Amino acid sequence: MYTLLKTDGKAKRGRLETVHGTIETPVFMNVGTAAAIKGAVSTEDLKVIGCQVQLTNTYHMHVRTGDRIVKQLGGLHRFMNWDRPILTDSGGFQVFSLAELRKIKEEGVYFASHLDGSKIFMGPEESMQIQSNLGSTIAMAFDECPPHPATKEYMQASVDRTTRWLDRCRVELDRLNGLEGTVNPRQMLFGINQGGTYEDIRIQHAKTLRDMDLDGYALGGLAVGESHEEMYRILDATVPLLPQDKPTYLMGVGTPANILEAVDRGVDFFDCVYPSRNGRHGHVYTNHGKMNMLNKQYELDEQPIEPGCGCPTCTHYSRAYIRHLLKAREMLGMRLCVLHNLYFYNRMMEEIRNAIDAGEFQAYKKEKLASMGRSN
Known about the structure:
Largest sheet: 8 strands, parallel, barrel
CATH topology of the largest domain: TIM Barrel
CATH class of the largest domain: Alpha Beta
Distance between the termini: 40 Å
CATH superfamily of the largest domain: Queuine tRNA-ribosyltransferase-like
Number of helices: 15
Number of domains: 2
Strand content: 15-25%
Strand order of the largest sheet: 4-5-6-10-11-12-13-14
Structural class: alpha/beta
Helix content: 40-55%
């Protein structure tokens, strides 16, 4: 159950009650593609850095180690030793990212595994079955994430098929949730709005989705090559048409600035690989912009990455030591940078929630953007 606690302009402050605990929104979901955050981050670490929700990839868990094995082991939560919410994506993004390895049909998508080339079929029913086996808190509907750019004719046909697939997802998940032995019989379903940068297609699809009374509503197919300005334009046109009393999730976004702008437009769920991916390359986020920890200027710098930061990295280690680890290709260097970045993101979301609670989001956003932009 989602409760809208407060608004500040279009910014939403909400609370989603789930079978695996409460999610305070706006929230950033930490991306653990293969049931783990890349960078040697454990589930115990995630609690220390304030993670509320972890996201796991349906396609990747299906091809390795296998969703049926995970079900035999009690589902993702027991498998990972994680007792908080998990969102599983549907496999739909792989329709986009593995474009050279798949064929899209009305019944679903035929893949060649990126691991060994073996044939895989995934349609709406199969996606729901995999996610049910995983037992995640929130399952995403199976969709096509269309390429950018795409013709309007292609986009409309894709969106229409995604809507038909959503109907099939709903029917199948209702069936699975009613079966004896289901890992999580209270699994939620979020639908996904598509349409690329075509406002009219996005708007019509949003109207169709809102009438389906889903547990939540996502916006997909953004951050796939369009400009930030185009993304914000689509959010301006689409988000107001989605139910305000349900979670709104912007998939795969993004930078701290992207998140602040999207919160300002009514989005309250986010995920992105940036903090972990950048961290593994020694790029860290601070309130004064990004830093490259490989730079020679940090060779003798005994300060933490960001003075005053409460993350485990900044509490215990210096810039000089982290630079040394990265230069020596020690895994600990990547781990410490990832921990800092995820803490930064989770802490920023907490600050956003507090600012909305206080009716001060606009002032917070302006100050945060100005501060982060000074050194960029």
